[in-house]
Amino acid sequence: MEWIILITIGLVAGTIGSLVGLGGGIIIVPSLLFFSTSTSLLMGLSPQQAVGTSLVIMIFTGLSSTLAYMKHKTVDYKSGLIFFIGSGPGGIVGAYVNKALNMDSFNIYFGLFMIFMAFVLMVRSKIKPLALKSNKGIQRQFTELSGEVHTYSFQPMTAILIAFFVGFCSGLFGIGGGALMVPAMILLFSFPPHVAVATSMFMIFLSSLTSSITHVAFGNVVWLYALALIPGAWVGAKLGAYLNSRLQSNTLVTVLRVVLIIMGIRLIYQGLV
């Protein structure tokens, strides 16, 4: 029964994470904590173990998604590597800070973060690129299959600082960070949405590597659970990338937003009582 639950969690997290560029950790971490504290199906996990195990899964989710998006040629590798300059160290710092959190404080902070993510998802579909004037920075172009050409640009230092914060949240909470990075890429740097999601998953793959190595060193990974989660997450990530190129994800995002708010309130309540 444990394996069925874990594979299902991985599948759902991988599909949703890849479809909307979240990475899937926002699903895995609270799910592991719920089944370990509210049921007898999984052994009691600490927040550090849930986060460490989630980040190992993010490696495979990010890699699977990136390989799928490569076929659609929507991954901006050069920009992703620049973002990783910030997200890599940020993930390591977040993993170190994670050590200081007990279950109650983790539940409160993670619950607040989930509600914040729900708000970000609510406004993400409505954001438009800001008309930022800049004669400097890196300029990129992306050509749609229809022939439409998108031009976008960003200041490297600004991008690295934003990515550091995203990486910090990733290492701290065990999430991919795409929920923060994708809106920033669209709003601040005028990335086309499909390119933002695909490049975000590439960055998640790289930053999860560094974050998870730190958590492995701390002994925070439950490998038996990770092995059960990986197959579902791998398949789900490919499914999400496939759906991303063919479907509007608004309905799914709306459902996810409601779920995040409910789960966030529940975590905060658990942390306070």
UniProtKB/TrEMBL annotation:
- Annotated TM spans: 7-29, 49-69, 81-100, 106-123, 159-180, 186-206, 218-237, 249-269
Q: How does it sit in the membrane?
A: Multi-pass membrane protein
Alphabetized UniProt keyword annotations: Cell membrane, Membrane, Transmembrane, Transmembrane helix
This protein's superkingdom? Bacteria
Principal location listed in the UniProt entry: membrane
Stated family? Belongs to the 4-toluene sulfonate uptake permease (TSUP) (TC 2.A.102) family.
Name-wise, this protein is: Probable membrane transporter protein
According to its UniProt entry, this protein's organism is Bacillus kandeliae
